[in-house]
Amino acid sequence: MSLLSLKQREFIPESSKERFIPVQSQGTEIFSDYGITLGGISLLSKGFFAERPKNRNEHILIFTLQGKGLIQTEDGTTYTVEAGDVMISPAQTLGHRHAPLDNFWKIIWIRLQNNANWQDVASSSFTIRKFHYGNDLHDAADNLIKEHVNHEHRAVRLIELYSEMIIIYLQRELSNELPISLRDVRYRLNQLWNSVNANLSYDWNLDYMSEKAGLSRTHFIRLCKKLFQTTPGERVKEMRMNRAESMLLHLDCPVYIISETVGYKNPYAFSAAFHHHFGITPSEYRKKTHSILAENMEKES
User: Fold this and answer.
1) What single-letter DSSP state applies at residue 118?
2) What is the pTM of this model?
3) pLDDT for 143-164, tens place per residue?
4) Do residues 283 and 275 touch, judged by C-beta distance below 8 A?
5) Is residue 240 located within the same domain as residue 115?
6) What does R_g of the chain's alpha carbons equal in angstroms?
7) Residues 66 and 80 in one domain
8) Cα–Cα distance between 40 and 102 in angstroms, integer?
9) Residues 128, 203: one domain?
């Protein structure tokens, strides 16, 4: 295994495309507060390479979105990264060289100052693992860049919001609040809850949910209680009741339609579940809330 001699350098072919995150513009002041010094979304073509030496005071993150890349550390170790991987290279650890393996390698990359905001990174070692929030980070950065370029109505406010989203997604990705194994499970369970929330009419029984989460039934229940302080069945019920409440408040469809939409084939079973959750029947809830809305509108007129 031969050692690499690395310098701060790169070669960018004309066919490579780079879009930089505006880290020093109106609306992105939060980046300075947290120590984000540079970042961008890159579509890198064959021939591109970048070297980053060990003696730097910045952490470097590379999220692979499409294609494959080759990462070589200065100790001679070679890694292949693919879509879904993140490289976390803390300051003063290993220098590295990165380049595309495919014709195009799409990444989002971030440089962070080695400061108190990113202590979890500083205390870790060079890592390549599956990311949890890389796609969310890309979407926030992509929208921020578009707002910065187009500068339409209230663009600065949106730039502020997208900048805050980038900070939050980075904090979630890099937090050592939970061990990596539990963070992976929480991410998978969050994906499951998103599916449940988008398809509440499905029969979300325990066996089906645990299978989708890739966990045994017993492990699924235990981890759900540990991470969300509730059972899987109670979490599904809460989602169904919240959706039903929103539909009763904003839509005029019959109760039996709402019942079917949130996964109850029997409207009486739905009414009983709603009453148990809110202490009032669906019809009474609709009548009460509409009455309150009517009174408020009268006062305003």
Assistant:
1) G
2) 0.79
3) 999 999 998 999 999 999 999 9
4) no
5) no
6) 25
7) yes
8) 20
9) no
